[in-house]
Amino acid sequence: MKQIVLIGAGNVATHLARAIDQSYPRGTLSHIYSRRHSSALELGQQLSYCPVCVDNLQALPTSADLYLFCTPDDSLEALWHTMPATHGGLWAHTAGSVPLDKMMAWHSKCGVLYPLQTLSKARSIDPRELPLYIEGSDEEVAARLESFARSLSGCVYRADSQQRGHLHLAAVLACNFTNHLLALSEDYLKRHDLDPKALYPLVRETMAKAELYNPRSMQTGPAIRGDEETMNRHLELIQEDLLLSQIYRLLSESIRRHSR
Predict the structure, then answer these.
(1) d(CA 207, CA 33)
(2) Distance between CA 95 and CA 12 in Å, rounded?
(3) What pLDDT score does 1 carry?
(4) CB 152 within 8 A of CB 23
(5) Which pLDDT belongs to residue 88?
(6) Which residues share a beta bridge with 31?
């Protein structure tokens, strides 16, 4: 890839821009687009060489090798609709839930570069350990995207749109829902004047065991033991929080069914 255009300046765009900056010659990432020029500039200034930063899609070059769309899933089709006609370059999006054929309606040579990781601007990660899942509109595109991905990461895999959709759903369950439960737990402890970080040694050990062993076999707690007395006592403590009570009951029932 001799010229890359990055569309987006959020979490995913930030990490991919850093990875490109580390792996490619200065100036390869030539342009960054964001709806807010200040966001594109903020990202560009983090790099060893600040690309051209624009807030108008029509200001992008039309003959780049790769146009990398790193924007929220529900914004992609509107972007594709307003993109200028490009000549010969690949289009690739980074969304887990958007099938490739949605992009193929706008550009024939296209693909997906999906990072299966929770990414935040404020936290750096080693791009060589970033899992990237590749799909292409044909084998030539897939091979080019795979070569590009391998220049950034040592963890590159192929997955079609259906497989990627399953990965994305599993990621929401494992990451987004887990993080939300941690937030609920912290809120509960704060309300009772307890250290919100008290659970983190427990959380670290839980995740370590989940990675080493089968999570189903590592399940502990009152639900899997059928300890109704403890569960009822917990429900009494949160009886005024109807949503948290529903979550507690639903997850407890899921644990019981999953253990059968």
Answers:
(1) 37
(2) 10
(3) 87
(4) yes
(5) 84
(6) 5, 52
Q: Which residues of the chain register pLDDT less than 50?
A: none
Q: What is the C-alpha to C-alpha distance for residues 58 and 23, in angstroms, rounded to an integer? A: 28
Residue 77: strand, helix, or coil: helix
Tokens for 7? 């569309």
Instruction: Tell me which DSSP letter residue 50 carries.
Output: P
Contact between 180 and 155 (Cβ < 8 Å):
no
Q: Contact 100/141 with Cβ under 8 angstroms?
A: no
Among residues 24, 99, 94, the alpha carbon closest in space to that of 65 is found at 24
Structure tokens at 195: 């250290």
Q: What predicted TM-score, i.e. pTM, was given to this entire model?
A: 0.92
The crossing angle, in degrees rounded to 10, of helices 177-191 and 242-258 is 130
SS3 (DSSP) at 152: helix
C-beta separation of 96 from 175 below 8 A:
no
CA angle 79/22/136 to nearest 5° reads 45
Can you tell me whether residue 66 is helix, strand or coil?
Answer: strand
Domain 4-159 architecture: 3-Layer(aba) Sandwich (3.40)
Parse the chain into domains and list their residue ranges.
Answer: 4-159, 164-258
Query: In CATH terms, is domain 164-258 a member of 3.40.1190.10?
Result: no
What pLDDT score was predicted for residue 260? 74
3-class DSSP state for residue 188? Answer: helix
Secondary structure of residue 221 in the 3-state scheme: coil
Bridge pairing between strands 66-69 and 4-7: parallel
The string of pLDDT tens digits covering residues 83-136 is 998 988 999 999 999 999 999 999 999 999 999 999 999 999 999 999 999 999
